[in-house]
Amino acid sequence: MIPQDFLYPEFEVVRNPVKCINCRICERECANEVHRYDAHTKSMVSDDAQCVNCHRCVALCPTHALKIVQSDHTFRENANWSGQTIKEVYKQAGSGGVLLSSMGNPKDLPVYWDKILLNASQVTNPSIDPLREPMETKTFLGKKNIVIERDAQGRLVNNLPPQLELSTPLVFSAMSYGSISYNAHASLARAAKTLGIFYNTGEGGLHEDFYPYGTNTIVQVASGRFGVHKDYLEAGAAIEIKMGQGAKPGIGGHLPGAKIVGDISKTRMIPMGTDAISPAPHHDIYSIEDLRQLVFSLKEATDYRKPIIVKIAAVHNAAAIASGIARSGADIIAIDGFRGGTGAAPTRIRDNVGIPIELALASVDQRLREEGIRNNVSLLVAGSIRSSADVVKAIALGADACYLGTATALALGCHLCRSCQTGRCNWGIATQRPDLVKRLNPDVGYQRLVNLITAWTHEIKEIMGGMGINSIEALRGNRLMLRGIDLNEKELSILGIKYAGE
After folding, report:
1. Around Cβ 159, how many Cβ atoms within 10 Å?
2. Where would I find the H helices in 279-383?
3. Which helix (H) or strand (E) holds 336?
4. Which of 188, 298, 331, 338 has a beta carbon 3.0–4.6 Å from 354's, enabling a disulfide?
5. CA 297 and chain centroid, separation
6. At 495, which helix (H) or strand (E)?
7. Residues with Cβ < 8 Å from 398, sequence gap 6 or more?
8. For residue 380, what is the enclosing H or E element?
9. Other CB atoms within 10 A of residue 311 CB
């Protein structure tokens, strides 16, 4: 036997024999085959080694007889070689393969949102009651570098380039059809339309059933060009060129052939069972000039009626890259931080490459302001936006709006078990197995997404009201309303904020 065969399971299934009634619901519901009925002992037994801690069995057990606990089995204490590191070496020694992970960087690294505090108004700048006074959350994404014009009657002339109009500064982030299920996409599309916001197709094309939601859809063009054709480009309200992704900066994508089935094959325009591999670079883009060519090619293809987004990963030179993009003709820059979620990424890259979105956003906003080109583009940020407070802080740091990915998956029922890459999502989100997909009811999923965004919007209004601010536009880039805590001078300098108490 090889060392990895001796690894103790990471999780343990704890079953209360008094409460368990052998209903076998856990057995039927577990896609990982953790539970089974033992006819000899007339009881349920568990294979802990297969458990990913998705909580499906716990949630559906009618007698609450189950719980999943972290194993307390440990390796000999070693500050340098943690148990997780040792297990990963064993796995690679046994397989010779690249370690894959999903759903964002879980390392104990600084979360700057939690080190930024919001200011509140008191006497001289009174607060605003959002229940009784107007509070504007409407946001427009696109170029604003125009000269104000008026007609002969003195009325403003709308000479803005194409804009995305959001009822609230939130957008559902890119999750491709294939990496997530049909029902998940249906939930996102319906919710975006109801809410007056947008959802992003990701790099998997757009299923023909969702074309009616095109006015609330951002279509993505990635290096693999999967599902990209003229009708697809025409269907969306905006087009996003994906140059990078926060969970895996500098590399491409890979959807296993096992997920390229049925309508996914048709939508992506590749044969069934074929791995969908997106190369790391766009093979026609090796400079800002090349990127500009694609930006204008897409504008030409759609008669200059749609804003073009360029998505980049948050890396150390993101500000310089954004400066070039702002001059390339793009209308919006999307920046994705290193804690961004994904269906699958090499573990080493997910956990070690990229920088926090807070630092990247502040750097980009400051650079564009210093160069006098901030109004050339809008900034859309992503990478672990976890609450309405994070949204307010992001906008005060310079964002125009925020992408939500993991938060929307959680709203749909995700339990962050981080096993998306297996295709056995017990909640019907990151899977293509028909028996699992049907577990996500799109009517329920849609309503939960509407509830989430409605709640966050109410909270955004409350927070802004407490700050004495009545519009997103007045909040954008207003770093005077932010203060840092437990931050050093360099971090405060990059963020462009003062220490709490100053």
Report:
1. 9
2. 288-301, 318-326, 347-352, 357-370
3. strand 332-336
4. 338
5. 27
6. helix 489-495
7. 361, 362, 364, 365, 366, 379, 476, 477, 479
8. strand 378-382
9. 27
Six-digit token string for 99: 């370690």
pLDDT digits (tens, 9 = 90+) for 136-188: 999 999 999 888 899 999 999 888 899 999 999 999 999 999 999 999 999 99
Portions of the chain given CATH number 3.30.70.20: 3-97
Q: pLDDT-based confidence at 242, cuts 50/70/90? A: very high
d(CA 328, CA 321): 11
What integer pLDDT is reported at residue 145 of this predicted model? 86
Residues 355, 383 contacting (CB under 8 angstroms): no
404: three-class secondary structure by DSSP: strand
Give the pair of three-digit tokens for residue 194. 């109801």
Yes or no: say if 357 and 381 are a contact pair by the CB < 8 Å rule.
yes
The CA distance from 223 to 400, in Å, is 26
Question: Where do you find CATH 3.20.20.70 in the chain?
Answer: 139-499
Whether pLDDT at 4 is above 60: no
Pairing of β 276-278 and β 253-255: antiparallel
pLDDT digits (tens, 9 = 90+) for 355-368: 999 999 999 999 99
CA distances from 299 to 3, 8, 136, 303, 478 (A): 56, 55, 31, 6, 32
Q: What is the pLDDT of residue 305?
A: 96
What per-residue confidence (pLDDT) applies to 100?
86
Q: What are the angstrom distances between the C-alpha of 25 and each of 29, 44, 61, 181, 292?
A: 6, 10, 7, 23, 55
Give the pLDDT mean for 287-304: 96
Domain 3-97 falls in which CATH fold?
Alpha-Beta Plaits (3.30.70)
- The sign of the CA dihedral 159, 162, 164, 169 is negative
* Helix 288-301 with 318-326: angle, nearest 10 deg: 40
Structure token pair of residue 109: 């690294």
- Look at residue 3 in the predicted model and tell me its pLDDT: 52
CA pair distance 141, 135, nearest whole angstrom? 19
Please name the residue that has the structure tokens 């006497």: 123
Q: Which letter, b or e, does each residue of 37-59 get, where b requires 16 or more Cβ atoms within 10 Å of its Cβ?
A: eeeeeeebebeeebbbbbbbbbe
**Which tens digit of pLDDT belongs to each residue from 481-498?**
999 999 999 999 999 999
Q: Is 33 exposed, middle or buried (0-12, 13-18, 19+ CB in 10 A)?
A: exposed
Q: Is the pLDDT of residue 257 over 90?
A: no
Write the burial class of residue 346 (CB in 10 Å: 0-12 exposed, 13-18 middle, 19+ buried): middle
Mean of all residue pLDDT scores within the chain = 94
> Please, are residues 104 and 406 in contact by the beta-carbon 8 Å criterion?
yes
- CATH code: domain 139-499 is 3.20.20.70
Pairing mode of beta strands 217-221, 238-242: parallel
Q: What pLDDT is attached to residue 5?
A: 58
DSSP class of residue 212 equals G
